[in-house]
Amino acid sequence: MRIVLVGPPGAGKGTQAAYLAKNLAIPHISTGDLFRANISQGTPLGQKAQEYMRAGQLVPDEVTIGMAKDRMQQADAAHGFLLDGFPRNLAQAEALDEILKADGLGLDAVLDLEVPEDEVVKRIAGRRMCRKDSSHIFHVIYNPPAAEGVCDVCGGELYQREDDSEETVRKRLEVYHSETEPIIDYYKAQGLVVTISALGKVAEVTQRAMGALPSREDA
C-alpha cells in the first residue's frame, strides 16, 4: 500500500505515521529523516541540501524529490510506503506521480488529518521542553508538570521553543494553507483523499485511520 499523509502542523502526523506504518508493515518515509540520512551519509543530494541550508535558503524541490525517489526505490519500499512531509506542494505531488507512473505504480490513498486551527495553536503553543533533556516534553493543558516550569523527570527548567510561539505557529499555518493544502484538491480530483478527524487519543485516531484506508484487497 502506498500512502501520503497530510495535515497541518500539530495534527500528529509523525506519531500517526509511525503507528500506521507498523500496522501496515510498510516503511515510514519522512522528509526530516530523508534530509538527516542524506546529510549524515554525505550523499551528493545531502551535500547540495546542506549548502542551501547553511546559506539560510530553502532546499529546492528537485533536491527533495531526488531524495524521496532514491528512498522509495529501496528494497524495503518495494511493496509500499507511507510518505510523511512529502509531497509538500503541487510541484512535488506532480513529480511523485511521474516517479510512480514510470514504474507502473500509483498511490492507494492520501490520508488527510483534519484538526481545527485553534486546536493546532493550542497543541503547539502549549508545549514545553526541558533544557536538560529535550526528550522530556510537557504540555500546559494536556500533560502539565507537577510544578510549573520544572521537569518532572530531571528537575530541569521547562521552556517554550521559539518555533512553538503562537505567532510562529500561525505563520506556519499560513504556509501550510498556501503551499500544502492545494495538494489535497489535486488528489481529490484523483479520488484518493480520505479525511479523518485527528482529535482524540492517539490510539483512537490510529483506529479511525486504519478503518478509513482501503483494504489491501482493494489497494
UniProtKB/TrEMBL annotation:
The gene is adk. Its EC number is 2.7.4.3. Residues 1-207 form the Guanylate kinase-like domain. Belongs to the adenylate kinase family. It is an enzyme of class 2 (transferase). The keyword Protein transport does not apply. InterPro entries: Adenyl_kin_sub (IPR006259), Adenylat/UMP-CMP_kin (IPR000850), Adenylat_kinase_CS (IPR033690), Adenylate_kinase_lid-dom (IPR007862), ADK_active_lid_dom_sf (IPR036193), Guanylate_kin-like_dom (IPR008144), P-loop_NTPase (IPR027417). Keywords: ATP-binding, Cytoplasm, Kinase, Nucleotide biosynthesis, Nucleotide-binding, Transferase. This is Adenylate kinase. GO terms for biological process: AMP salvage. It holds the Pfam family ADK. ATP binds at G10, A11, G12, K13, G14, T15, R127, I137, F138, G200.
